[in-house]
Amino acid sequence: MDYIKINNRVWDVRVTALYRNFNILYTENTQRTLAVGALMHLDPLGAFHGHKIKFQRRGSNLQEFDELYNFLSTPRKTGIPVEIAFNQTTISYNAYVSNGEQGLKRIDKVKNIVYWDEFEINIIPMEAQVIP
Questions:
Q1: Cys-Cys link to 17, which of 13, 54, 121, 127 (CB 3.0-4.6 A)?
Q2: The CA-based dihedral angle spanning residues 92, 96, 100, 106, taken in that order and rounded to the nearest 10 degrees
Q3: Which helix (H) or strand (E) holds 2?
Q4: Are 69 and 119 in contact (CB under 8 A)?
Q5: Domains delineated in the chain
Q6: For a pLDDT cut of 90, what percent of the chain falls above it?
């Protein structure tokens, strides 16, 4: 089983860290009551399961690493299909990348090559996977 597919593709890069997260979003009808004890009225929209992933270059494959970074950092008006490890299997969803970060590792002036360190992205689902 492939544990990370982005845009229906398994990229030739190393995954150095994988985190999952969730956000439960509520409507504007969610509020505290004025009753004794100030009970909370919840009106959930659903749970959104997303991921944070760190990627690193595999061996000397600079092109694939740069290509993945460029693909993920490109703004788009539609989501990206992803399939990522979740519980004991994977979860598939249409997602967007909210942000990413990468540091410079070193520059080889003799070979004229820029080596970038691992980069990290946050992937957020376009719609709730769990609806109340």
A1: 54
A2: 70
A3: none
A4: yes
A5: 4-125 (2.40.30)
A6: 89
